[in-house]
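In this section we turn from sequence analysis to structure. A common task in structural bioinformatics is to predict how a protein folds when a small molecule is present, because the ligand can shape the pocket around it. The inputs are simple: the amino acid sequence and a SMILES string for the ligand, here adenosine-5'-triphosphate. Study the lines below before reading on.
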Amino acid sequence: MAAGTDHLAGLYGDAAAGALALAAHACRAGHVSAPVWDLNFVSALGRGPDRFVLEVCRHSHAARVAVSGPSGIGKSLLLQTISGLVRADRGYVRLSGETLQDTAQDIWRPPQQRRVGYMFQNYALFPHLTVAQNVAFGTRQGWLNPRRGELDRQVTTWLDRLELSRVAGLYPHQISGGQAQRTALARTLMASPRALLLDEPFAALDPSLRLALGAELLSVLDELSLPILLVTHDPAEAERLMDEVWALGT
Ligand SMILES: Nc1ncnc2c1ncn2[C@@H]1O[C@H](COP(=O)(O)OP(=O)(O)OP(=O)(O)O)[C@@H](O)[C@H]1O
């Protein structure tokens, strides 16, 4: 991988060992204003010959970015590194001018301080909590906190906005795929994130629903005008929904 080039690459085995030794090299943003996404890092999973390494050098002013690439190439690892669930081995992660991690300056902001909303592939709803309780869990305090009145108001607002009021008292197994998706989104938005990371938000849905829900999700996100990184396996979906597509390769 040439120094300074723009790239996103998932590497295995020997290539991964080489990447770890070299990175993170010079990688400069060419704009005066701070990019929305300013990423130059190396993240790794596992050890020894099975080690998987992701090398990223990408600056972008696009608010809505789709991340595409084959299964196992490191798309989720990219999101995990931005959210802070995984700590990059080297390099930095900056979002709209704010440094979330920089190994050279010894800066590390833990996930709960990043205000980066992460919506998981399978929505990860709690099966024993109702829709409303799942949404309330999006705040750090959770639904049992003492400032219950304010929390209830926020929950009601999001349930209304995402058309979930009618199913607020139901459990995840009693709601549709689209409602589950919106519940997960409402829970993520409860934490007032400054950016959203959506990992295959349509993967669990029937193909015939994907188109409609993609449009629906985007109309909600349009109102919020948050930067979004959306992982998808579907190139048409990536082109249709987002401003820019980042293709992860080897
Ligand atoms: N603990 C681990 N040790 C070593 N390798 C791991 C570990 N966990 C995950 N991996 C590997 O890291 C790579 C990246 O995983 P990741 O989940 O980011 O891929 P992905 O592109 O999101 O895949 P998919 O599209 O299938 O969800 C995969 O090849 C996976 O096998």
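The two ends are 10 Å apart (CA to CA). As an exercise, try to locate the residues that line the adenosine-5'-triphosphate site and compare them with your own expectations.
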